[in-house]
Each structure stands twice: as C-alpha cells, then as structure tokens.
Design goal:
Number of helices of chain B: 17
Distance between the termini of chain A: 64 Å
Oligomer: heterodimer
Keywords (chain A): Heme, Iron, Metal-binding, Signal
Shape of chain B: globular
Structural class of chain B: mainly alpha
Order of helices and strands of chain B: HHHHHHHHHHHHHHHHH
Helix content of chain B: over 70%
InterPro entries (chain A): Cyt_c-like_dom, Cyt_c-like_dom_sf, Cyt_c_oxidase_monohaem-su/FixO
Distance between the termini of chain B: 28 Å
GO molecular function (chain A): electron transfer activity; heme binding; metal ion binding
Largest sheet of chain A: 5 strands, antiparallel
Strand order of the largest sheet of chain A: 4-3-2-1-5
CATH class of one domain in chain B: Mainly Alpha
Number of strands of chain B: 0
Radius of gyration of chain A: 23 Å
Number of helices of chain A: 12
Organism (chain A): Candidatus Nitrotoga fabula
Pfam families (chain A): FixO
Shape of chain A: globular
C-alpha cells in the first residue's frame, strides 16, 4: 500500500522541513561568510594550522602536521637584529597550510585582497613550506578606525625560509602552540574549561568575549559548553607563569588545594628534561606522605623534556592572550 | 544466535529476532554508559580517584559516556521499538529481519570501535559529533540508513489503510536523523571552520535531540499507553498538532545553544522565540497521553510498563518548562554553562526519554519472547532505583547550577564556586551509581525472563497475565 492518502502530508512535511533548514542553515551562512577576520582570528588560524581535531595526517592526535610560532629577533636572511622582535608562524615543508591560505575567501573582504596582493599568500606551497607574519595596514580600517591586520607570506616577500627562521631561534623562542591545541582537544580540556567568555558577564574575571571575526579558519573552535573550571580564552593574560602551569598540570592540588582538575602528569612522558626516567610511583608515594603530614614539603615536580607533550600544551595555554 | 541468523534466509529467521537482539544490546549499552557516568562522577567528586593513567582521565571518558548512552542505549532502544512496533501497527512482518539483524550487528561493531578510538583521544573536537568523519560515514551507512530503510519499507508494505501516529513519528524521525546527521557533520567532510563549524556543531546537537530523541520517545508513549490500557488515543488531532509543531518549531532554535557567541543577533532572537514555541508540541503530547489514561489510572500503580511510560511523560513537563524558558536571553544569562544544563540534559535523556524507552523494551521483549516478566519485585527495584537515583542527580545538579550561576554573575572567584559545588558532586555520584546499579538488576531480570519467564499463551498480551514473583 502506497502513501496515496498521505500525498498532501508528505509534501507539507517537505515544505516545512525545507523551510526550517533554509532559515537555520542557508540564511545564517550569508552572514557568517561575510565575517572579516580580525587580528585574533589570523593569529589563531596561523598558530593552530589546518586542523586540531582528528585528521589523516595526525591519526593518533600526537600534534603532527602543525606549525610553530617563533619569536624572531634577528633577520633570518641577513642576521641583523630587528628593530622590534616579531612573531613568525613557521610551516616547515610538508605541513598543511591553514584554511585562510588555501581558501582565501575565508579571510573576509579587504583582508583577503591585502593578504593576496600585498602579502602574496597564494605563493605559499606545502612542498617548500612557508613563513607567515601578521602585519597591520592603514589601508584597511575597523569600524573604530583602527588599522586592520592581514597575512604576509614572508617566504615570498622577504625570502625567509622555514629552515632559516628555525635555525636562528633559541628553543625558548619556539612555541608549539598548534601541537598544544591538539593536546587541548585530545585531553578534553574543553569539557570543563570554556573558550568563550559570555557577552553578558565575565568581563571582569575572564576578559572580553570574542568578536565575529575571531574564529575564521579555526577548527575546532572548542568553545565548550559546561564550565567546571574557569574560562581560558584569555588565561595567558591573567597568568603567564610557565612554572605555575607546570606545577598545576602535574598535580593541580600543589598550587590550588581545592581544585577538582585531574592530574596531567602522564603528559610528561617517561623522561624528564635531563633524560632521567621519571619515577611516578615514588613521586605519588612521597606526595601522599606529604599530605599525611609525614613530609614537610611536597616532592619536586620534574622539569619536562623539550619534546614532551606537556611543553606543547603549556605553550598553547600561555599563548591564550 | 545472532551470528547463526546473520547468514540464514530471511524467511527462516523468527519474527522479532532483530528487535530482541536490539533490546538486549540496548540494556547492555545502558549498563556500560551509566557505568562510565558513575565513574566520571566519582572523578569529579574525588579528583584523585584513579589518577595518572591517560585512559582513565576524565577528558578521555566523558564523551564516551555521552555517546554510549545516546547511540548505544537510547538509539538502540529506539531501534528495538521500531522493529517491534512498526510491523505490529501495520499488521505485517518487519520488511527484513535479516537487514535488522545485520543492522544490530554492525551497529554494535561500529559503536564499539568508535568509542574505543574516542577513548584513546581520537576526536573531531566537536561536542555530540565527536566522531571523526570516517566514523560519521560508518554511522550513517551501518546505523541510521539501514534502520530507516527497514522502517519505511515496513510502513509501505503495511496491511492497514491508515498509518497510526507512532508510525508517522518513526518514519519522519528516521528520515530527519539521516539528514541531520549528514548535514550536521558537513564541517568535518568539507573542513568548514570558525563560527560556521561551531554553529553547525550545535545545529546538529539540537536537532539530534529535537528531531530524533524527543519525537521517537514520544511515539513510544503513543503506542504503549493505548495498547496496554486498552483506551483509544484521546485525540488524533492533538497528535497532528504535536507532530507538525515538532517539525516546524523544534527544528529551528539551534542557535539558542550559542547565545553568548558572536552569532548574528537576528538568528539568536529568532532561535529564542522558536525555542519558547517548543511548549506547543510538549503540551500537546503530555495532555494527549495523560487524557488517554482516563479511567485506567489504577494501571499506573499496577502495571510496570504503564508506570514507566507515565513517569516519562510527567517528566516531560519540567523538561519542557525548563527547555522553553532557560534559553531566553534573560534566563540563559544566569544558567548558561552551569551544572543546571547538565541537570537539564539528564532530565531529557535519563528522565523523560529513558523511562519511555525502558517501557518499550520491557513491553517489547516480553511480547516478542512470549514470556511474562520474571520478577515484578526486581522490576520495581529497577524502577525505584532509577527514579530515585535520577532525582538525586537532577536535584543536586540543579542546585549546583544555581550556585554556579550566582557565582558567575556576581563574579565570585572560581575556586569558591568549586568548593561550594563539592557536596553536590558527591550527591551526583551517589545518584548516578544508583542508576548504574538499577541497570544491572534490569539486565538480570530480562535475562531471567528469557530463560525462566512463564510462557504467554498465543493471542494474549503479557500485561494480561498476573505477575508471579
């Protein structure tokens, strides 16, 4: 038996459902597609790279296929000191380029034209790698008449290659922000910490809510929906101490006795900064003795290794300005 | 048993096999899902409980709990209800038992694989659509599409002239689920980013609740109450109102989940108004079912399936009163992102919908296996542990959320909020553990029903027989 008697019903259903899809998907897409990337948006997509969720080039979410954020103090080409140190976003050869470079329309009107024409971002190639900078121009103004930022492919405009930039940088000037964002997503930090100060409050404690252009090209945004801990969008402005972060991640109750955050000591890996094996069992035993009052002070937190996952996560957290 | 029938001829598979396997699978996933929930709650109450192991970190387990409950328990119980109720209402057999069994088998395989990968941290980073896109496609291919095809074909091949309310909902919801699932995951296939991705995440999360979980759960009540009480449905017209207002009003307020994000203001205002209109289908549904109960309220006390159904329907009242109003700007300002929302989500999934699905699984398994429930005592224990455990959870989380909301708007240092919430975290863990215990009792009871329940004579319904234990 066919839907004969339901001919009208099924058509009405199609119309109703189609209308609701148009209003909730099609119409908002015009507004969202028109958003112009802000400086914060450019910073986010350049520092976190193509994607921070699962991707084929990072199957086990180890922070692969990610750029590095580098503080450049000397011109990598000439070796002369720069008047003002700048942050460069280094994409070594083979690393996927961010969405705004592969799909420039994503940057929004004005920023797209400047980035393509002046910044020459379309000349960036995955095979050769590229170095990006964020620059400001008076040719583009925000509604408050402040200069707008755009992307510059420094490999094309200044001849800075990824190798040169990385060679002249000390390890303390290299920030694994992109890989850290992968850690943030993989470890589920966003199940308890939002990255979205609310528009109606939160100004005093958590800082300004994000604006329309602050997310172009970022994926996932990891806003979070359920706060069991403080908002983190501007945490790096409140607390930029890597030492505090290190203690807090190893065992949050070392610095905040009432915290309910899990311990992330396993992100230290097997070896500490000196290459010595970390004895977790001993540490936990001494910590328990300290809590019972048998030891005067808590055991020392091992210094993390340069290539440990916790270093990447701290790089990301401190970079949340 | 399942493996034997997978390669049998369709006509050699006993009618109802797919539904029975779905029923038991769903109870087992309910046990796994609530077990994980109880474990996670323990970690929130006692942060040093099982520590230092990546696999047992809260951030690795939270989403496994959520998806095990949604895809495992709730959706499999829905599949069970569809494989059982759709043919019965069409006076026919299920279109393909074999497809149903393969559906059940692949569902379990895909879900186990997906949740294991997610447990190790492999995720798209999008709430409710956490699976990476290859797994999304697997879910569409092995879970949602085969289920929908079986339901639609059974309805097309029916031997009745009209289609009963329950089957409108089943047919429309399976269709809408496919669309919502495929469209909602577009950001992953095509790498859409930024606010588009964030909005689509919540578009999916909203619609999977509004167009899948809520209407299918309601459709179960439309079947169970008239069938077991013997009263005809109070009003088919109100049923129409319910159905059409679900399609029109419930599919549009997705943006109210992101009221504090920089989405277009017109979209937020529109979503908020549509969100209040969710009360239309809600009131239509609740009044229709409660009026159907007229003259048979004794069965609310005496019959287990009716009791589960009516409690689910009654819980829809606070659920929709919260849901309709908490998303308006003035109230959202206070409760957004707090434990209030956690309580509301559990009221929807563990309160309203779980009670309705439990009724369908109780009724369906007894009818299809032709066995009377093994023990009413264990059934009662299941009911009360579930209800009390859920209530403790809901009340404690609501209170914690109000405290958190006050802390938020008065900008209290966050750690003071954490300290104030601690007793409620312990209460939540106790409530969740009671729910978990109740599922073990239920599984035992249903297993014993299959093994040792009294046979239901041909032509009789299980509720016509007296309980024996």
């Amino acid at each position: 038996m066919r839907f004969r008697e339901y001919k009208f019903g099924s058509r009405a259903f199609g119309a109703a459902f189609g209308l609701s899809m148009s209003i909730t998907l099609l119409f908002p897409s015009f507004d969202l597609a028109a958003s112009v990337s802000s400086e914060a948006g450019l910073e986010k997509q350049l520092s976190s790279g193509w994607d921070s969720g699962w991707q084929t080039k990072d199957f086990f979410m180890e922070g692969k296929n990610k750029p590095l954020k580098v503080l450049v103090k000397k011109d990598p080409k000439t070796g002369e000191a720069l008047q003002q140190p700048v942050y460069a976003y280094v994409y070594p050869a083979g690393i996927s380029l961010p969405n705004g470079v592969t799909h420039t329309a994503n940057l929004g009107r004005g920023v797209e034209e400047m980035s393509v024409n002046e910044g020459r971002i379309k000349e960036a190639r995955v095979e050769n790698g590229a170095v990006f900078l964020i620059e400001k121009t008076d040719k583009l103004l925000t509604f408050e008449d402040k200069p707008l930022a755009y992307m510059v492919n420094a490999t094309a405009t200044k001849g800075w290659t990824p190798d040169d930039v990385l060679k002249q940088a000390a390890d303390t000037d290299v920030f694994h922000v992109g890989a850290g964002k992968t850690m943030f997503v993989r470890e589920g930090c966003w199940w308890c910490h939002t990255l979205l100060p609310e528009q109606t409050q939160d100004w005093q404690v958590f800082g300004a809510p994000p604006m329309l252009g602050d997310f172009n090209g970022e994926s996932p945004t990891a806003f979070g929906s359920d706060r069991k801990g403080p908002d983190l969008l501007h945490v790096g402005s409140r607390n930029a101490s890597r030492e505090w972060m290190m203690l807090h991640f190893f065992n949050p109750r070392l610095v905040q006795p009432h915290s309910i955050m899990p311990r992330f000591d396993y992100l230290w890996g097997e070896k500490d900064a000196d290459g010595k094996t970390i004895d977790y069992a001993k540490w936990r035993q001494e910590y328990d003795e300290y809590r019972e009052g048998k030891l005067v002070s808590a055991p020392d937190v091992p210094m993390y290794a340069k290539d440990s996952e916790i270093r990447k996560l701290i790089d990301f957290i401190v970079n949340l300005k | 048993m399942l493996l034997k029938y997978l390669f049998a001829k369709n006509e050699n598979i006993p009618a109802g096999s797919a539904a029975v396997f779905f029923g038991f699978s769903s109870i087992i996933w309910f046990m796994i899902g609530t077990g994980l929930g109880s474990f996670n709650a323990a970690k929130l109450a006692f942060p040093d409980f099982v520590t230092g192991v990546e696999m047992f970190a809260f951030g690795h387990m939270r989403q496994v709990h959520v998806l095990a409950v949604i895809f495992g328990w709730i959706s499999m119980a829905f599949a069970m209800a569809m494989m059982y109720i759709t043919p019965v209402l069409g006076n026919t057999r299920l279109w393909s038992e074999k497809l149903g069994l393969w559906n059940c088998f692949m569902w379990n395989v895909a879900l186990s694989l997906g949740l294991t990968l997610m447990w190790t941290g492999i995720t798209s980073g999008r709430e409710y659509s956490d699976f990476p896109w290859p797994l999304d496609l697997a879910v569409a291919a092995f879970i949602t599409i085969p289920l929908a095809v079986n339901v639609w074909m059974t309805i097309l091949k029916r031997r009745t002239q009209g289609i009963y309310t329950t089957n409108w909902f089943f047919a429309a919801s399976t269709f809408m689920l496919i669309i919502v699932f495929l469209v909602g995951n577009l950001p992953e296939y095509f790498h859409l980013t930024g606010l588009t991705e964030a909005y689509m995440t919540w578009w999916f999360a909203h619609n999977v609740l509004g167009l899948w979980i809520t209407p299918v759960a309601a459709a179960i009540a439309y079947y169970v109450i008239p069938k077991v009480t013997g009263n005809p449905l109070y009003s088919h017209r109100i049923g129409h109102l319910h159905f059409w207002s679900i399609v029109v009003f419930y599919s549009t307020p997705a943006a109210h989940h992101l009221m504090s994000a920089p989405l277009p203001e017109w979209l937020k205002s529109f979503a908020s108004v549509e969100g209040v209109l969710i009360l239309v289908p809600a009131i239509a549904f609740v009044s229709n079912i409660l009026l159907t109960m007229q003259g048979k309220w004794n069965m609310f006390v005496e019959n287990l399936e009716v009791r589960f159904t009516v409690v689910g329907v009654l819980l829809a009242i606070p659920l929709n009163m919260q849901g309709g109003f908490q998303q308006t700007r003035s109230i959202n300002w206070y409760v957004h992102g707090t434990a209030w929302m956690v309580a509301h989500a559990h009221l929807a999934l563990l309160g309203f919908s779980t009670f309705l699905e439990a009724a369908a699984v109780y009724l369906g398994l007894q009818t299809l296996m032709k066995r009377k429930l093994y023990s009413l005592t264990l059934g009662n224990l299941h009911f009360w542990l579930l209800l009390i455990g859920f209530s403790i959870y809901w009340i404690s989380m609501t209170m914690a959320g109000l405290i958190q909301g006050a802390g938020k708007i008065y900008e209290v240092p966050y750690i003071d909020v954490v300290i104030a919430e601690h007793p409620y975290m312990i209460a939540r863990w106790l409530g969740g553990t009671m729910v978990f215990s109740s599922t073990i009792i239920w599984l035992f009871n249903m297993w014993m029903t299959a093994r040792a329940g009294t046979e239901v004579p041909v032509g009789r319904m299980p509720h016509e027989l007296a309980y024996e234990r």
